[in-house]
Amino acid sequence: MPIYKAPVEDVNFLLNDVFQIDRYDNLPGFSDASADVREAILSEAAKLSEEVLQPLNRVGDLEGCVRHDDGSVTTPKGFKEAFKQVVEGGWLGLSAPTEYGGQGLPITLSQTVTEFQCSANMAFSMYGGLTVGATAALLVHGNAEQKAMYVPKMVAGEWTGTMNLTEPQCGTDLGLLRTKAVKQADGSYKITGTKIFISAGEHDLASNIIHLVLARIEGAPAGIKGVSLFVVPKFLVNADGSPGARNGVTCGSIEHKMGIHGNSTCVMNYDSATGWLIGEENKGMQGMFVMMNEARLGVAVQGLAQSEVAYQNAAAYARDRLQGRALSGVKAPDKPADPIIVHPDVRRTLLSIRAFNEAARAMVVWTSLKSDLAHRSSDPKDRQDADDHLGLMTPVLKGFLTETGFANAVQAQQMYGGHGYIAEQGMEQFVRDARIAMIYEGANGIQALDLVGRKLPRDGGRAVMAFFGEVGAFAKENAGDEAMKPFVAPLSTALGHLQQATTWLMQNAMAKPDNAGAAATDYMHLFGLVTLGYMWAKMAKVVHGKIAATGPTDYLSTKLVTGRFFMERVLPATTTHLARIQSGSATIMELAAEAF
Amino acid sequence: MPIYKAPVEDVNFLLNDVFQIDRYDNLPGFSDASADVREAILSEAAKLSEEVLQPLNRVGDLEGCVRHDDGSVTTPKGFKEAFKQVVEGGWLGLSAPTEYGGQGLPITLSQTVTEFQCSANMAFSMYGGLTVGATAALLVHGNAEQKAMYVPKMVAGEWTGTMNLTEPQCGTDLGLLRTKAVKQADGSYKITGTKIFISAGEHDLASNIIHLVLARIEGAPAGIKGVSLFVVPKFLVNADGSPGARNGVTCGSIEHKMGIHGNSTCVMNYDSATGWLIGEENKGMQGMFVMMNEARLGVAVQGLAQSEVAYQNAAAYARDRLQGRALSGVKAPDKPADPIIVHPDVRRTLLSIRAFNEAARAMVVWTSLKSDLAHRSSDPKDRQDADDHLGLMTPVLKGFLTETGFANAVQAQQMYGGHGYIAEQGMEQFVRDARIAMIYEGANGIQALDLVGRKLPRDGGRAVMAFFGEVGAFAKENAGDEAMKPFVAPLSTALGHLQQATTWLMQNAMAKPDNAGAAATDYMHLFGLVTLGYMWAKMAKVVHGKIAATGPTDYLSTKLVTGRFFMERVLPATTTHLARIQSGSATIMELAAEAF
């Protein structure tokens, strides 16, 4: 059976030492998240994830969700009870506004809890995750009545939420969607159409399910400019707030899919279902973007989370599994063979996963802190800077963390040899579950295009210039510090590659957008690598400070070695990405479609 | 439903034009494989794979193999009839010696047929593939009686074969194996022990199963030097050659695994089963190596094969799926959206898979030809050169082709967006099936160690020097050819990186073997990239010649574009691998095992 131990020490290091979130005590909710409160929350979150959610991970994979003839769906054994614990612990409302029953704590904190839950049980965590995303959209774009009707119940976890975008003929290109909305005399709409791939579309965990649905109002313009957002509850809500009559939305079937079997991925049929407009007519994408940006961060965390739990198991296995002898001579003479962790190739594999995980976690905390600043700061300049950062980093986080996270799960599985291919060991489930994160909430190719085509040029490149400025200043400040050399020198080289790539795009992609498209995925990876390199350099700096102040610990020493590994072994890939980007799009665009 | 079309034109190009196998008419069997015979065989092989095997691929995945209470195993519906067709077509004996009923045709030819069958149905093709491997071991190390008793039936496909190495406590390190062999008065042995992960260990496709089993004879030395190889038939063979009494070997259970569900992966229990020694006592690894080298080439082909079929489906989907508009302006104004193949990132993905497939196929043909030369040439120098090549390239083929093949299947799946995650589409099966090829027949980390630790230094580096000499000479000869510049220049750079890496290993790994271990996987990838680069340059040269002679065709023009893509976009990764190799092992070896 797989193991999982929430990385509480690592989270504390990031919150307390690297990002020092106590500095933000002036922001709403931050003073409620003092060090001891954080400690208590993280320790309880760890316990819940390790003891309740993780043991259900394989159960969920084996049993999956079952749709009954009446359209109802049963989740795997134990999910209902576990969800009850999540609800009773108030975990879904951790960062929700206090006026709706939430605890108003920083996203910076709740995102780390999300990581624990995703590591322990990704399929399970999605029921709550989607609810938080739907709540965010309602909070930003819903009217007062809608907020009052839905948000408190969703924050409490009594009701869950979904997002309904995809249809058979439309995924990325939402302008193609056909689901219809017909306005009624009372101001409501009748929604009719079919949505596919709806995560948590139907289940038995909550007394109501609040669907947010993209549809086209009769007579609306074609394309994306005619798309509106609606709230469609499974049960219409009575005047007293209790669930009333069944609405015309049903689960038509559950998809058979590669992984996340514990989450019900539904085909949802809307048959004159009653819905209400959220925000303005034909401005549905605005609300959906709130939800998607929220969700994209969550999906990035899934990539990290699967990489983390896969690493923990692979490392434990490598310490235990006896096979062969060390190249440099016998290490365990009292045993029939050495543990495979003596082998450089095994260590290389483990370190490359770990070096990613720790820096990716830092990147998530950093960006979550910016999210808090963007939403809570009273200073417009701070809000704008934070929002710039958030916009720029969201596609990088989603694309780079999920792709690397998946690749890491595959490498962790590899440490098990043949045993990694066997279901009972659990490693292959991490791979299958992690795979979806590269696809949903905007496939990674779309993230790369969003980065290159939208986020980079936005506001004259203000966000990317701020990032270059920050990293460049860090490198300059620490250039004279001998201990920082193994970090600063490679970071500067990598930053140079990213800047060259950016210049190349400015010079070559304006007139010829195919050059941007051809460069996009490599640019996203290059950006991700430089960001993780910066995270490592920042962390190393903090570690040096702590060691100078209070002496070395195992945790701190390991951190430095892991960081050096990243700079030596992972970061050099920036060279290759730059070369690819600079090769342009001519060859790629040369063939006719039929030639493929 | 997934499609598959055997790449017959591409195989013909390689056999006829690039490697011109008609030049080898003096080798036994080659003159029987004249161009028209090859054409007929490839066309029949294509038909069998496309029409019989491919339609059973998903059936096999869904149904899997079922073990009954009596230990018998039923394969998925249709497998039995399909196997009968394979047997009746003589496909298992294509390259087997004529004196045992085979057709004695070149491996160069039969290996291309293997690719078709693996693309169509990897799990199914393993039943035959393992039989061919077991037959090879019997042919090399079996005595006359053993050969006469087993080989003709195995060549005919009446009986199938297995290889039994792994035990719960021993995978890579076969010296740890515990299965016991006790010599009997009649010269036979009683074999007792448990073997795991035995592919095709029990099934209903053949009237007998011939197990080749590694075991330790009572009183044998400890470790790998006390391991012997035995032949243990499921049914003892009567004097007339018919299957007789049931032997004491049974299938204890079937593993639940990530993929290749159509192949029965068995726990095999040996309970005083009667077996006969193959070759000498305590020299079991020699026979096993024959089988494993055969199998490693076959597994390399599986990597290519899954990449090929995944590519074909992804390309077809990209041509059909309408979503969004081209960055450079609308391409299909009559349709609601453009097909996604207009997007540079989609083309980049497809081309990177295709550029690998075509060069990997060339590498397989090249190496198979060397295998034929090693076995059939009358010139000892030719045999030695060919054997050098085979030894050097086997770990590269196995490790590099399976790892890239898997990554390509993942990328092909990505082209489908959410649909790629859904089982019915078949893309996720390619990923799950391809995954095992990185693991079995020596996990890829072991291949890398074999390359760096054994194959590279062997005979004073004779094999690698010959390879460098050949590639270097090609680059020199074509340096003045303007049309070849896009191929020769990047090839020379990449070869330079490989030579630098090799020099670094010579200087740093002798005294400190951990430097070799830390470099191994990157060195294997670097080697694979350079080899594929060489294949592309060779193919480009041939294409230029053909175009000059008879004018361009779509096939030839596409080949050149695909090749240029490889040189521009794939080959530059050699820089990163070199940097990683040169970073050494110090950081990797620094942490204590407990720190991981």
From TrEMBL, chains A, B:
Keywords linked to the UniProt accession: FAD, Flavoprotein, Oxidoreductase
Under catalytic activity, the entry for this protein gives: 3-(methylsulfanyl)propanoyl-CoA + oxidized [electron-transfer flavoprotein] + H(+) = 3-(methylsulfanyl)acryloyl-CoA + reduced [electron-transfer flavoprotein]
Q: Which prosthetic group or cofactor does it need?
A: FAD
The record's listing under InterPro entries reads:
Acyl-CoA_dh-like_C_dom, Acyl-CoA_Oxase/DH_mid-dom, Acyl-CoA_Oxase/DH_mid-dom_sf, AcylCo_DH-like_C, AcylCo_DH/oxidase_C, AcylCoA_DH/ox_N, AcylCoA_DH/ox_N_sf, AcylCoA_DH/oxidase_NM_dom_sf
Describe the location of the Acyl-CoA oxidase/dehydrogenase middle domain by residue ranges. Answer: 163-271
- List the Gene Ontology MF annotations in alphabetical order: flavin adenine dinucleotide binding; oxidoreductase activity, acting on the CH-CH group of donors
The Acetyl-CoA dehydrogenase-like C-terminal domain, residue ranges: 467-591
Domain Acyl-CoA dehydrogenase/oxidase N-terminal, residue spans: 80-158
| Acyl-CoA dehydrogenase/oxidase C-terminal domain: residues covered | 282-451
EC top class, in one word?
oxidoreductase
Q: What is its EC number?
A: 1.3.99.41
Q: Which superkingdom is the protein from? A: Bacteria
User: According to its UniProt record, which protein family does this protein belong to?
Assistant: Belongs to the acyl-CoA dehydrogenase family.
* Described function: Involved in the assimilation of dimethylsulphoniopropionate (DMSP), an important compound in the fixation of carbon in marine phytoplankton, by mediating the conversion of 3-(methylthio)propanoyl-CoA (MMPA-CoA) to 3-(methylthio)acryloyl-CoA (MTA-CoA).
According to UniProt, the name of this protein is 3-methylmercaptopropionyl-CoA dehydrogenase
Q: What is the protein's species of origin?
A: Bradyrhizobium erythrophlei
Taxonomic path: Bacteria, Pseudomonadati, Pseudomonadota, Alphaproteobacteria, Hyphomicrobiales
